[in-house]
Hints:
- Helix content of chain A is 76%, strand content 0%.
- Chain A is built from ten helices and no strands.
- In chain A, α2 crosses α3, α5 packs parallel to α8 and α8 packs across α9.
- The longest helix of chain A has 27 residues.
- Chains A, B: GO terms for molecular function: DNA-binding transcription factor activity; transcription cis-regulatory region binding.
Amino acid sequence: xxxxKTQEKRQPKYSRxxxxxxxxxxxxxxxxxIVRDGPHKLSIRQIAQEAGVSVGLINHHYTSKEELVADAYxxxxxxxxxxxxxxxxxxxxxxxxxxxRFIQLSFSPVNLDPKLFRAWLAFWTMMQHSEEVSAVxxxxxxxxxxxxEHLFQEIIEAGTPLRMSPRLAALGLSGLLDGLWLEWxxxxxxxxxxxxxxxxxxxxxxxxx
Amino acid sequence: xxxxKTQEKRQPKYSRxxxxxxxxxxxxxxxxxIVRDGPHKLSIRQIAQEAGVSVGLINHHYTSKEELVADAYxxxxxxxxxxxxxxxxxxxxxxxxxxxRFIQLSFSPVNLDPKLFRAWLAFWTMMQHSEEVSAVxxxxxxxxxxxxEHLFQEIIEAGTPLRMSPRLAALGLSGLLDGLWLEWxxxxxxxxxxxxxxxxxxxxxxxxx
DNA sequence: TTTCTTGTTGAACAGTTGTACAGCAAGAGA
DNA sequence: TCTCTTGCTGTACAACTGTTCAACAAGAAA
Lengths: 209, 209
């Protein structure tokens, strides 16, 4: 009896974290859940279990489930873009080479992952009825596309005229990348990664005047 | 009292339909619900209310909600493709002209509709955990892409060589169309219909050798 | 008119959901 | 050691989910 009480005292049932630490843990747990089970199984209780905390904690740190998901969206989208950005800039090269590397990365297992698609499905669904999530999307997508646009601008400035404006070239490539990513995610047997890269590589070649 | 009873007799509470008629009504109601409220509000009770029937009826005609949704998916996807097909063939013309018309139709209000996107979001979500819905997708997407592929094949046979195989050309165009449709649906302020058409029209021009 | 088939009802069931909140307890500061 | 702040727990709640099924009744057939 005495012994048990002592053990309990020495092994706290839980450890207190600072709000930012706890939010980080909750965001990671939410991402794990979305990625594992998809949007329709995403519940406060699932997330709480994944994070190893009680149900109540989530509404202590976030006013609603949507707020947490929006935070998770921002987190994964930004870290993916950062990852892409770093890998591309690390190896340097011309704008043309960087775009090619961007395409190759888009068709690498990091990005071509059914789990990742499930996460985006959840975000798109929540965008339909959450201003918060919509704002995060607009913010992330803008940065994504302006990055592409800037690279096409560089190509033109380097002396290679294009058949269309950098804006349309970027819109086209992002559409192509997203569309092929979508179709591959819905059914990976549709085409291979190599075919995907081949199609996008052609876009890069063909838009040169 | 006597009068009331007579009225009740003459105005039945409901009318009995043949299974096929009722299924048609249920499918339409399900589509209305998906399109109006999106995937996360799609429930048996909502569909039943929309169809003006009781909750129990749905499980009388379908063994599960998923079966009904799969039926609804097949219905809307097939009718959209039929609509496209008819409009394209009606005006005839070369394969090149038909493809251009396909692109224009893709960026017309019929297809560029946030409501339609909500429906597809629901289907994609259900594909993640329903063999039934997945099968319908595979079936519909195959017919969609093979239609495009066939038109590119015609172009080649008409004497215009392409920079890539009909398969890759079709994959590319469908990726482009789907990707731009996706991005427009997520945020219609991204680009205009004209810009979308312009991008796809360029694909048609550029792939010629 | 009566019978009979079967499409239809609506309550009941056993779950699930997000959120609120009274109270517990971790662990820093005194 | 004790106090006190506040991160955290877990129950309670009201509303919802898909599915089942005994009972009802529409309307064709006899």
